[in-house]
Amino acid sequence: MTATTERSLPSVGSVWRTRGGVELKEFFRQRESVVFTLAFPVILLVVFGAVLDYDIGGGVTFTQYFMAGIVAAGILGASLQNMAISIATERSDGTLKHLSGTPMPKSAYFVGKVVQVLAVTVLIVVILLAVGRLAYGVVLPSGSDWITFVWVTALGSSACTLLGIAVSSLAKNGRSASAMVTPIALVLQFISGVFFQFSQVPTWMQTIAALFPLKWMAQGLRSVFLPDALAAAEPAGSWELGRVALVLGIWCIVGLALCVKTFRWQDRG
Questions:
Q1: How far apart are CA 43 and CA 37, in angstroms?
Q2: pLDDT digit string, tens, across residues 214-244
Q3: Structural domain for 182, as ranges
Q4: Residue 5 included in any domain
Q5: Rounded Cα–Cα distance for residues 165 and 171 (Å)
Q6: Mind listing the pLDDT tens digit for each residue in 50-68?
Q7: What is the pLDDT of residue 3?
Q8: Where does the sequence pass through the membrane (predicted)?
Q9: What are the residues facing 57 on neighbouring strands?
Q10: Residue 175 belongs to a domain
Q11: For the chain, what is the domain count?
Protein backbone atom coordinates (compact mmCIF):
# COMPACT_ATOMS: atom_id res chain seq x y z
CA MET A 1 0.00 0.00 0.00
CA THR A 2 2.80 2.40 0.92
CA ALA A 3 4.73 1.67 -2.27
CA THR A 4 1.59 2.23 -4.35
CA THR A 5 0.91 5.53 -2.58
CA GLU A 6 4.46 6.72 -3.11
CA ARG A 7 4.31 5.84 -6.81
CA SER A 8 1.07 7.81 -7.17
CA LEU A 9 2.53 11.00 -5.78
CA PRO A 10 3.13 13.69 -8.42
CA SER A 11 6.67 14.70 -9.27
CA VAL A 12 8.18 17.82 -7.75
CA GLY A 13 8.21 19.48 -11.19
CA SER A 14 4.50 18.76 -11.58
CA VAL A 15 3.76 20.27 -8.17
CA TRP A 16 5.80 23.34 -9.06
CA ARG A 17 3.84 23.83 -12.29
CA THR A 18 0.54 23.37 -10.52
CA ARG A 19 1.48 25.81 -7.78
CA GLY A 20 2.57 28.37 -10.37
CA GLY A 21 -0.83 28.09 -12.05
CA VAL A 22 -2.61 28.48 -8.71
CA GLU A 23 -0.64 31.62 -7.88
CA LEU A 24 -1.45 33.19 -11.25
CA LYS A 25 -5.15 32.40 -10.92
CA GLU A 26 -5.28 33.81 -7.41
CA PHE A 27 -3.52 36.99 -8.48
CA PHE A 28 -5.78 37.73 -11.43
CA ARG A 29 -8.90 36.98 -9.39
CA GLN A 30 -8.00 39.76 -6.93
CA ARG A 31 -9.18 42.93 -8.63
CA GLU A 32 -7.38 45.24 -6.21
CA SER A 33 -4.03 43.56 -6.81
CA VAL A 34 -4.46 43.62 -10.58
CA VAL A 35 -5.45 47.28 -10.61
CA PHE A 36 -2.72 48.41 -8.23
CA THR A 37 0.06 46.32 -9.74
CA LEU A 38 -0.78 46.51 -13.46
CA ALA A 39 -2.94 49.58 -13.99
CA PHE A 40 -1.30 52.06 -11.62
CA PRO A 41 2.06 52.32 -13.47
CA VAL A 42 0.22 52.63 -16.78
CA ILE A 43 -1.95 55.42 -15.38
CA LEU A 44 1.17 57.23 -14.17
CA LEU A 45 2.77 56.89 -17.60
CA VAL A 46 -0.34 58.27 -19.30
CA VAL A 47 -0.70 61.19 -16.88
CA PHE A 48 2.96 62.17 -16.75
CA GLY A 49 3.35 61.64 -20.48
CA ALA A 50 0.44 63.97 -21.21
CA VAL A 51 1.30 66.67 -18.66
CA LEU A 52 5.11 66.72 -18.79
CA ASP A 53 5.64 66.57 -22.53
CA TYR A 54 8.76 68.71 -22.86
CA ASP A 55 12.33 68.42 -24.12
CA ILE A 56 14.95 67.74 -21.43
CA GLY A 57 17.81 68.36 -23.87
CA GLY A 58 19.36 66.78 -26.91
CA GLY A 59 15.96 66.20 -28.45
CA VAL A 60 14.98 63.78 -25.67
CA THR A 61 11.48 64.16 -24.24
CA PHE A 62 10.68 63.76 -20.56
CA THR A 63 8.47 60.78 -21.44
CA GLN A 64 11.48 59.04 -22.97
CA TYR A 65 13.38 59.67 -19.73
CA PHE A 66 10.38 58.72 -17.60
CA MET A 67 9.98 55.35 -19.31
CA ALA A 68 13.01 53.86 -17.56
CA GLY A 69 11.81 55.01 -14.16
CA ILE A 70 8.22 53.85 -14.55
CA VAL A 71 9.35 50.42 -15.77
CA ALA A 72 11.58 50.15 -12.68
CA ALA A 73 8.67 51.24 -10.48
CA GLY A 74 6.45 48.64 -12.16
CA ILE A 75 9.01 45.94 -11.39
CA LEU A 76 9.13 47.11 -7.77
CA GLY A 77 5.35 46.92 -7.51
CA ALA A 78 5.11 43.48 -9.12
CA SER A 79 7.82 42.05 -6.88
CA LEU A 80 8.53 43.73 -3.54
CA GLN A 81 5.12 45.30 -2.89
CA ASN A 82 3.16 42.39 -4.30
CA MET A 83 5.11 39.77 -2.35
CA ALA A 84 5.11 41.66 0.95
CA ILE A 85 1.35 42.20 0.88
CA SER A 86 0.20 38.83 -0.50
CA ILE A 87 2.42 36.68 1.73
CA ALA A 88 1.53 38.70 4.85
CA THR A 89 -2.16 38.21 3.98
CA GLU A 90 -1.73 34.47 3.48
CA ARG A 91 0.14 34.18 6.76
CA SER A 92 -2.51 36.05 8.74
CA ASP A 93 -5.49 34.15 7.27
CA GLY A 94 -3.90 30.77 7.93
CA THR A 95 -3.14 29.84 4.31
CA LEU A 96 0.58 29.40 4.96
CA LYS A 97 -0.03 27.31 8.07
CA HIS A 98 -2.36 25.07 6.10
CA LEU A 99 0.09 24.69 3.19
CA SER A 100 2.97 23.86 5.54
CA GLY A 101 0.92 20.95 6.90
CA THR A 102 0.29 19.38 3.48
CA PRO A 103 2.58 16.95 1.61
CA MET A 104 3.36 19.75 -0.86
CA PRO A 105 7.11 20.49 -0.93
CA LYS A 106 7.65 23.88 0.68
CA SER A 107 9.79 24.86 -2.27
CA ALA A 108 6.67 24.71 -4.46
CA TYR A 109 5.17 27.67 -2.62
CA PHE A 110 8.16 29.87 -3.41
CA VAL A 111 8.41 28.60 -6.98
CA GLY A 112 4.76 29.55 -7.42
CA LYS A 113 5.44 33.06 -6.14
CA VAL A 114 8.43 33.43 -8.47
CA VAL A 115 6.31 32.30 -11.43
CA GLN A 116 3.67 34.86 -10.49
CA VAL A 117 6.21 37.69 -10.21
CA LEU A 118 7.85 36.70 -13.50
CA ALA A 119 4.55 36.58 -15.38
CA VAL A 120 3.25 39.84 -13.92
CA THR A 121 6.58 41.60 -14.50
CA VAL A 122 6.68 40.54 -18.15
CA LEU A 123 3.06 41.61 -18.62
CA ILE A 124 3.50 45.02 -17.06
CA VAL A 125 6.73 45.70 -18.97
CA VAL A 126 5.07 44.77 -22.26
CA ILE A 127 2.06 47.00 -21.52
CA LEU A 128 4.24 49.97 -20.53
CA LEU A 129 6.46 49.63 -23.59
CA ALA A 130 3.41 49.34 -25.86
CA VAL A 131 1.71 52.39 -24.36
CA GLY A 132 4.92 54.41 -24.41
CA ARG A 133 5.65 53.54 -28.01
CA LEU A 134 2.14 53.87 -29.44
CA ALA A 135 0.89 56.84 -27.40
CA TYR A 136 4.06 58.90 -26.93
CA GLY A 137 6.51 57.70 -29.55
CA VAL A 138 9.03 56.43 -27.01
CA VAL A 139 12.06 54.98 -28.78
CA LEU A 140 12.51 51.38 -27.64
CA PRO A 141 15.88 49.71 -27.03
CA SER A 142 17.63 48.11 -29.98
CA GLY A 143 20.40 45.58 -30.55
CA SER A 144 22.51 44.77 -27.49
CA ASP A 145 20.48 47.23 -25.40
CA TRP A 146 17.84 44.52 -25.12
CA ILE A 147 20.40 42.30 -23.37
CA THR A 148 21.03 45.05 -20.83
CA PHE A 149 17.30 45.56 -20.45
CA VAL A 150 16.75 41.86 -19.71
CA TRP A 151 19.53 41.42 -17.14
CA VAL A 152 18.72 44.66 -15.30
CA THR A 153 15.06 43.63 -15.16
CA ALA A 154 15.91 40.08 -14.06
CA LEU A 155 18.37 41.11 -11.35
CA GLY A 156 16.16 43.94 -10.10
CA SER A 157 13.08 41.74 -10.01
CA SER A 158 14.97 38.97 -8.19
CA ALA A 159 16.33 41.33 -5.56
CA CYS A 160 12.95 42.98 -4.96
CA THR A 161 11.11 39.63 -4.84
CA LEU A 162 13.44 38.32 -2.16
CA LEU A 163 13.15 41.55 -0.19
CA GLY A 164 9.36 41.40 -0.49
CA ILE A 165 9.32 37.87 0.96
CA ALA A 166 11.54 39.01 3.82
CA VAL A 167 9.52 42.18 4.51
CA SER A 168 6.29 40.16 4.67
CA SER A 169 7.43 38.74 8.02
CA LEU A 170 7.45 42.22 9.56
CA ALA A 171 3.73 42.77 9.01
CA LYS A 172 0.82 41.27 10.93
CA ASN A 173 -1.44 41.06 7.87
CA GLY A 174 -1.86 42.27 4.30
CA ARG A 175 -3.36 45.59 5.32
CA SER A 176 -0.52 46.48 7.67
CA ALA A 177 1.98 45.30 5.04
CA SER A 178 0.41 47.65 2.49
CA ALA A 179 0.46 50.52 4.98
CA MET A 180 4.13 49.84 5.70
CA VAL A 181 5.49 49.10 2.23
CA THR A 182 3.55 51.49 -0.02
CA PRO A 183 4.79 54.76 1.56
CA ILE A 184 8.37 53.47 1.52
CA ALA A 185 8.03 52.51 -2.15
CA LEU A 186 6.64 55.95 -3.03
CA VAL A 187 9.48 57.72 -1.23
CA LEU A 188 12.05 55.55 -3.00
CA GLN A 189 10.41 56.35 -6.34
CA PHE A 190 10.64 60.07 -5.68
CA ILE A 191 14.30 60.00 -4.67
CA SER A 192 15.43 57.39 -7.24
CA GLY A 193 14.78 59.35 -10.41
CA VAL A 194 11.38 57.87 -11.29
CA PHE A 195 9.25 61.03 -11.33
CA PHE A 196 12.07 63.52 -11.84
CA GLN A 197 15.44 63.63 -13.51
CA PHE A 198 17.83 62.06 -11.04
CA SER A 199 20.23 65.00 -11.46
CA GLN A 200 17.51 67.27 -10.02
CA VAL A 201 17.28 65.25 -6.81
CA PRO A 202 19.27 66.79 -3.89
CA THR A 203 22.64 65.13 -3.37
CA TRP A 204 21.78 63.82 0.09
CA MET A 205 18.67 62.14 -1.32
CA GLN A 206 20.74 60.63 -4.12
CA THR A 207 23.03 59.14 -1.47
CA ILE A 208 20.08 57.55 0.34
CA ALA A 209 18.59 56.28 -2.92
CA ALA A 210 21.91 54.63 -3.82
CA LEU A 211 21.49 52.31 -0.84
CA PHE A 212 18.46 50.64 -2.42
CA PRO A 213 17.92 48.60 -5.61
CA LEU A 214 15.31 50.87 -7.24
CA LYS A 215 17.83 53.61 -8.01
CA TRP A 216 20.17 51.15 -9.71
CA MET A 217 17.36 49.53 -11.66
CA ALA A 218 16.24 52.93 -12.95
CA GLN A 219 19.82 53.89 -13.82
CA GLY A 220 20.46 50.64 -15.67
CA LEU A 221 17.23 51.03 -17.62
CA ARG A 222 18.01 54.66 -18.48
CA SER A 223 21.10 53.38 -20.28
CA VAL A 224 18.88 51.54 -22.79
CA PHE A 225 16.29 54.27 -23.31
CA LEU A 226 18.54 57.33 -23.44
CA PRO A 227 21.44 58.36 -25.70
CA ASP A 228 24.94 57.93 -24.28
CA ALA A 229 25.36 61.71 -24.19
CA LEU A 230 22.93 61.88 -21.25
CA ALA A 231 25.14 59.59 -19.18
CA ALA A 232 27.09 62.72 -18.26
CA ALA A 233 24.10 63.79 -16.14
CA GLU A 234 24.48 60.74 -13.90
CA PRO A 235 26.32 61.21 -10.57
CA ALA A 236 29.41 59.34 -11.84
CA GLY A 237 29.18 60.75 -15.35
CA SER A 238 28.46 57.29 -16.81
CA TRP A 239 25.83 54.57 -16.66
CA GLU A 240 28.03 52.43 -14.34
CA LEU A 241 26.49 49.20 -15.60
CA GLY A 242 29.12 47.14 -13.81
CA ARG A 243 28.16 48.75 -10.51
CA VAL A 244 24.47 48.33 -11.33
CA ALA A 245 25.01 44.58 -11.70
CA LEU A 246 27.13 44.43 -8.54
CA VAL A 247 24.67 46.31 -6.32
CA LEU A 248 21.63 44.39 -7.57
CA GLY A 249 23.55 41.13 -7.16
CA ILE A 250 24.45 42.05 -3.57
CA TRP A 251 20.81 42.85 -2.85
CA CYS A 252 19.85 39.40 -4.17
CA ILE A 253 22.26 37.80 -1.69
CA VAL A 254 21.10 40.04 1.17
CA GLY A 255 17.46 39.39 0.33
CA LEU A 256 17.98 35.62 0.25
CA ALA A 257 19.77 35.72 3.61
CA LEU A 258 16.93 37.75 5.12
CA CYS A 259 14.34 35.32 3.71
CA VAL A 260 16.10 32.34 5.25
CA LYS A 261 16.41 34.09 8.60
CA THR A 262 12.99 35.72 8.90
CA PHE A 263 10.43 33.70 6.92
CA ARG A 264 7.78 31.93 8.98
CA TRP A 265 4.75 29.88 8.04
CA GLN A 266 2.44 31.20 10.74
CA ASP A 267 1.93 34.23 12.95
CA ARG A 268 3.96 34.49 16.10
CA GLY A 269 2.09 33.11 19.06
A1: 11
A2: 999 999 999 999 999 999 989 999 999 999 9
A3: 12-262
A4: no
A5: 11
A6: 888 788 888 899 999 999 9
A7: 46
A8: 34-52, 64-89, 110-134, 146-167, 179-198, 244-263
A9: 60
A10: yes
A11: 1
